[in-house]
Write a structure and sequence with these properties.
The chain has 194 residues and is mainly alpha-helical. Helix content is 63%, strand content 6%. The protein has two domains: 102 residues, Winged helix-like DNA-binding domain superfamily/Winged helix DNA-binding domain (Arc Repressor Mutant, subunit A, Orthogonal Bundle); 66 residues. The chain has a three-stranded antiparallel sheet with strand order 1-3-2. Helix 1 runs parallel beside helix 6. The longest helix has 26 residues. This is DNA-binding PadR family transcriptional regulator.
Length: 194
C-alpha cells in the first residue's frame, strides 16, 4: 500500500476537486514530507497514475486564470480510498507512513468502524510481540544466532509494544468520544464538501 496514494486521494476527496499544486500545498501543510516522505514529484506522479487508472478524473477548471489540470475523485477512486484507509488503520506492520496517513484521514470513517480496524491492528501487534518475546526468551542452544542479534529482537519488542500501547490509547480516546468522526458531523475532517 502507498501512503502517498492514500493521501493524494484523501486531499482531492476533501476539496471535491483540486489541482496538483493545491494537493501538494495541503500535504506540505500537514507535514507529510516529514512523516510520509511525500515529495512534490511523488504527488504529481500519483495524480497522473491515479488518473490513468480511473481513480481520478482530470479536467480544466472553469474560471481559472491560467489553464491547469484539476482532479476530482471517481467512484472507483472513492472505493480505492476507503480500501486503502481501512488497510492503513488495521495494518500491524512497520509502515509508519501508511499508519500516519490512516490516522490523518481516520475521521472519514464512522467511529465504530475505526475502533474495530484499530482493534485488528492491535491483535496483529500483540501476536507479533508474543512471537518476538518467545525468541528473546529462547535459551542459547535454541537461539541459534549470534548473541548480539538478540538486541535487534529486543528493539523490535519495544517498538511493537509501544505501537500496541499507542493503539490502545487511541481506541480508548475514540471510545470516550474524542475527535469528530464521519458519523458525528457532515463537517468531519476528510469528508467531501456537502
Amino acid at each position: 500500500m502507498s501512503a502517498t496514494r492514500l493521501l493524494v486521494l484523501g486531499v482531492v476527496r476533501v476539496h471535491g476537486q483540486a489541482h496538483g499544486y493545491r494537493v501538494g500545498r495541503e500535504l506540505m501543510d500537514w507535514g507529510a514530507e516529514e512523516w510520509a516522505n511525500v515529495k512534490w514529484g511523488s504527488i504529481y506522479h500519483a495524480l497522473r497514475k491515479l488518473s490513468e487508472q480511473g481513480k481520478l478524473r482530470e479536467f480544466v477548471a472553469e474560471g481559472e486564470v491560467t489553464e491547469r489540470t484539476s482532479y476530482e475523485i471517481t467512484d472507483e477512486g472513492e472505493a480505492d480510498f476507503l480500501r486503502l484507509l481501512r488497510g492503513a488503520l488495521s495494518h500491524g506492520g512497520d509502515d509508519h507512513a501508511l499508519l500516519c496517513a490512516g490516522v490523518t484521514l481516520m475521521p472519514c470513517l464512522p467511529r465504530a468502524e475505526v475502533i474495530e480496524l484499530l482493534k485488528e491492528r492491535l491483535a496483529v501487534l500483540e501476536k507479533s510481540d508474543t512471537e518476538v518475546v518467545s525468541a528473546i526468551d529462547a535459551t542459547e542452544a535454541e537461539w541459534g544466532k549470534p548473541a548480539h542479534v538478540r538486541e535487534l529482537f529486543r528493539l523490535w519488542h519495544y517498538t511493537v509494544d509501544a505501537g500496541a500501547d499507542w493503539t490502545r490509547q487511541l481506541i480508548a480516546s475514540l471510545e470516550a468520544g474524542e475527535y469528530v468522526m464521519a458519523d458525528d458531523s457532515p463537517q468531519a475532517f476528510g469528508l467531501p464538501p456537502v
